[in-house]
Amino acid sequence: MELLKLENVYKIYSLGEENIAAINGISLLINKGDFVALIGPSGSGKSTAMNLIGCLDIASKGNMYLNGLNIQNLPESNLAQIRGKKIGFIFQTFNLIPSLDALENVALPMTFQNVPRPIRIKRAKELLKQVGLADRIYHLPNQLSGGQKQRVAIARSLINDPDIILADEPTGNLDTKTGDEIMNILVDLNKKGKTIILVTHNHELTKLANKIITLKDGKAMEAQ
Amino acid sequence: MFTDYFLLSLKSIRHRKLRSWLTVIGIVIGVAAIISLMTLSRSLENTIEDQFETFGANRILISAKGFHGPGSLSQGLTTEDAETIKKISGFEYVISGIFRSAEVRYKNEIGFTIIGGIPSEMYEEFYGDTGIEIEGGRNIREDEKYVAIIGSRVATDMFEKDVHVGDKIEIAQQEFRVVGILEEIGNAQDDNQISISLDAAREIFDEEESIDLIIAQVKSTSDIPQLQEKIEKELERKRGDTNFQVLTASQILEQINQILGIMQIVLVGIAAISLIVGAIGIMNSMYTSVLERTKEIGIMKAIGAQNKDILTIFLIESGLIGLVGGIIGTILGTSLALAVGPFSKSAGFTLNITIEPLVIILGLLFAFCVGIIAGVLPAWQASRLKPIDALRYE
Ligand SMILES: Nc1ncnc2c1ncn2[C@@H]1O[C@H](COP(=O)(O)OP(=O)(O)OP(=O)(O)O)[C@@H](O)[C@H]1O
Ligand SMILES: [Mg+2]
Question: Model ipTM?
């Protein structure tokens, strides 16, 4: 089943006189349940593509469909809703809120969806347990290791049960062993049916994917 | 949902304790200044009005030009003028008085103060109508000459040893017996005065005819304007000059209120300036706080926060900082004003500090609003950031 479709999408930055096409006409299709590996050299546009798919940024040209809905020209408030409900982000730098403990970081996306507190807390506890952090729920981010922070981020990305998980180099800041543990969690999630797009420089990790998209100078090449 | 955002704001404030406190201090100073200054100026106004009531609203004062209260040298009024005024109907009584400064001795100690002399038979009315109580001893009686009633500070402060009823004091080398001590009136001038009979005063100051002050007590307050005019006309006719002035209590009160009004404008001006400084402090601090947390805003947007959510969180935060600053500032400001009370007493002017609820409510409301307003601009800016730009901010 078709989940995400990009049709001839461009992202052009104008720096004074010069125009840089970070995404230079990409069309691609991602189905529900896919595990997509997005690879390519540095500066090829991987992060830019992820930001467009995640509705953090708006494409200069082209159409993007999520679940058949054209999201290209939606206002910011609708995009925020989509980010909150349909998309889960996992970043290389974890991006947790420093003033909130693990539990509240995980529960925060539900706060923005007006879910009552008891339900939020219950769900957040379940997810933290699922990523193996049941004994760290009241720790602040600066009291957690890198791997633990990324687990919190994964739990957070799952709390609103999104259609798609976007992970931009999630193991980039972690050692190999910790990185493998994080990847195992992602593989597990994919087995349970979550669609995942993973940006990585590690070719080993592409073996986990059922679809590999290689970006080069803002253009995409696809391999199964 | 509001509670959730309230808790989020609270956690964020607590997380950056130092910065939050610095911001709070800015608003505390502003609010404390405005509350204490407003309380003080209101109290000053009330106190002076109270003082005036003791002076007597039903009195017309006649003095020579340039006479501005006891102590200043005056020339020109004589017993003849007092007789002129007595002939006008509408007065309860007319008192002629001499007010001069003189050397006072008590047990080999020398002091220097104002001596007031009015006819001894007038003392009952004089203190009766002003409501000033004689705390120790009794009033001066008719036909008594070398007796004195002393102000409360003469009794306790002027000399090393306290002066008691029955003690002998020497005024301008003449011995007097203290028969009464007045209650504390609240201003240094009245409390340091010694009252004696007019006859005795004439003797020690060697004045046969001249008078410093004529106090005319009217029967009915509503007659004051006409009587004032009449006095002026009659005196001018009899004397053939205008070398005197006729003042009523309300006129003097008006003059004082004018001065007080200017003082109030200055005080409130100073307070307003400090509050503006406080507001700018909050704004600056909110602004930095928003800049520092640009990435956090990006994160919140990435996980589904809408612009209005961000705006709400930041507004609660700045409102809270304003309110906390307001509460601390109010407490500080009122205690500051209250502390001035005893301080003013030792300086000779008893200021009755009245804490007005309106001032406190205004102070709190103001602080809260300043907090919100100072937070609006940076919060609005923060909420409008593009998610990706906020997220990329380092
Ligand atoms: N805000 C921007 N303004 C101008 N150019 C930009 C901006 N963001 C990205 N670019 C350019 O777009 C291109 C793609 O950047 P992007 O971050 O997507 O690369 P990437 O594939 O994620 O690289 P890496 O593997 O190093 O993370 C780069 O050439 C970059 O310089
Ligand atoms: Mg990148």
Answer: 0.94
